[in-house]
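Input record (one chain):
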Amino acid sequence: MIQTPLCSLLGIEYPILQGGMAWVADASLASAVSNGGGLGLISAMNASADWLREEIHKAKTLTDKPFGVNIMLMSPHAKEVAKLVVEEKVPVVTTGAGNPSKYMEAWNTAGIKVMPVVPSTAIARRVERAGAVAVIAEGCESGGHIGELTTMTLVPQVCDAVKIPVIAAGGIGDGRGIAAAFMLGAVGVQVGTRFLVAKECNIHQNYKNKVLHARDIDTIATGRRLGHPVRALKTSFTREFARMEYDASVSNEELERFGTGALRLAAQEGDEKHGSFLAGQIAALVTCEQPAAEIIREMFGQAESILGGATKWIR
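The corresponding structure, as predicted from the sequence alone:
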């Protein structure tokens, strides 16, 4: 079995984190991933502290394994959520869409292991100085909010830039991606899109079907004009968003209003006309619904096979 420093750091069996996907990563999915040997994450998204507290309590009834919370720092509830994870003694926090530095001292004092998602070496160095125990280097192949660099280029540069462990994310959906991440210097991976079709994932079946039927060219990145690019599956909604984005007569406020609530409509209602079905470029590799634990075992079994035979390519 593949064991890395990430396993001992987090108390997990496999060096894998489930992505903190808004409107997707709830107590059900997080606990299933943790029970399967990885680290499940509950997404705080834009929700209130009360909602998150309830999900944390649910997860504690579903698993006795470590799990964490992903905090989106752009959320209007970020400050109260930052306090809540201390109160609830959440062992691990990952962060995205912002700088976590102002919360780091309190989290570190509480013994929380903080692992921010980073899109560049500069931000990786900054959070390392602030006390992060690891960083998640996420390339633009991922679903949801994305940066500019690909996983292949970002991960090795972040590995060279910091002394703390690096977790690779973006475009990883099978054992080949895991093996590649280790070759780039990472000690673990974060996977999102593959877990969209986990049996324990509570998104609408329309969402799962769209992932299962996706082709290699079926994602699109929109929102660069607003400064927050997002990758999603191509639909009538995302195509219209892209058209509006390049229409000078459409204001930024109109564009923001058009996109508000689109992810919730996709995840909860399966609305194919108005919903935004966030997914990464590996969606085409996803072929069937499986329990989360089975997904993890299958990916790492393939990775072990690849890494075990890697020397045959060396001449």
